[in-house]
Amino acid sequence: METLKKINLMHGEFNSMEAREILMEMCNKNINFNKVQNFSSQIRFGEDDEKAINRIAQLKESVSSIAEILEEAKAHNKKLKIKSFIEIAYED
Are 89 and 46 in contact (CB under 8 A)? Predict the structure, then answer.
């Protein structure tokens, strides 16, 4: 699978509150998207979307990890350098 484009989505330094707002919002949007996907599968097919269920679990683990990092940064009054890239490619 050839990468079509690599996009720099986020690059900067943030205090713990700014980082929390950005990162948690991004995770929560993704969790909600997968909840809607699962709900749609339940309505249309009468069964859960296992891919969405698994992704929700992964994202919740990520939220926990991020929360720990944010709490540590806040406790030590540290800024966080955050970089995020998206790779886009065609799927066969």
Answer: no
Percent residues over pLDDT 70 in the chain? 100
3 forms bridges with which residues in the sheet?
A: 89
- The residue among 33, 72, 71 whose CA lies nearest residue 52 is 33
The two three-digit tokens of residue 72, written as one number:
């540590």
Structural domain span for residue 31: 3-89
Domains in the chain, number: 1
CB atoms within 10 A of CB 73: 18
Strand partners, 81: 13
In the chain, which ranges are E strands?
A: 3-14, 80-89
pLDDT of residue 58: 99
What pTM, to 2 d.p., does this model score? 0.88
List the one residue out of 20, 4, 21, 23 whose CA is nearest residue 83. Answer: 23
As given in the structure block, the two tokens for residue 23 are 């990162």
